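Re: [ENG-882] Designed sequences occasionally contain unexpected residues at chain ends

Forwarding the minimal case from QA. Structure tokens:
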């Protein structure tokens, strides 16, 4: 399989009633509390500053950007879910809802906190089921730190791949060639595109 992978997962109907009952309620998984947000707090800036060290290439994820992308009324239907531990933002997941197909638009945690990513993925599946979605899609590269845990939650790897088009008149033609090297750590999600 190539470096770019798309995951797909069918949401089982038996989980819908449970998801409807819990989707709007805060969830606690051990010391991690997950709940919905209307807007990203300023602490999202600290999360991004810590998280970006895990990757060689990641697009901007400040509170201002995330609120513009996912919380603005014209952005579309997104469910913003945040993970906290002792009142500290340690991760978030944004789910694009509305219709039979939901998307994990964005997922980011503190470095090394795959437990938080796993809890957010489980929460995302419940949010998607509660919204009426029949399937959930998550875009990840095969060497991403969350790849195996997402696959372990029942997502299947599809053959679909997606290219990346960046238009910037100031970039040199070969400025992004480094992204083709397999050792480069890249964080790209569906929310980084105009696709959703």
């Amino acid at each position: 399989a190539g470096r770019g992978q798309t995951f797909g997962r069918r949401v089982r109907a038996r989980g819908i009633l449970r998801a409807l009952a819990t989707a709007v309620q805060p969830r606690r998984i051990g010391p991690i509390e997950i709940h919905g947000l209307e807007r990203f707090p300023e602490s999202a800036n600290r999360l991004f500053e810590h998280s970006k060290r895990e990757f060689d290439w990641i697009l901007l994820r400040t509170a201002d950007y995330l609120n513009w992308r996912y919380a603005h009324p014209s952005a579309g239907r997104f469910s913003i879910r945040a993970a906290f531990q002792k009142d500290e933002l340690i991760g978030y997941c944004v789910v694009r809802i509305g219709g039979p197909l939901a998307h994990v638009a964005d997922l980011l945690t503190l470095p090394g906190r795959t437990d938080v990513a796993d809890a957010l993925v489980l929460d995302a599946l419940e949010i998607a089921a509660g919204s009426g979605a029949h399937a959930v899609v998550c875009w990840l590269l095969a060497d991403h730190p969350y790849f195996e845990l997402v696959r372990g939650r029942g997502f299947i790897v599809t053959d679909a791949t997606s290219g990346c088009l960046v238009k910037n008149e100031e970039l040199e033609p070969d400025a992004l060639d480094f992204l083709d090297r397999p050792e480069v750590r890249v964080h790209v999600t569906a929310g980084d595109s105009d696709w959703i």
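QA comment: On inspection the terminal residues look reasonable. The CA atoms of residues 31 and 164 lie 38 Å apart. Proposing we downgrade this to a documentation issue.
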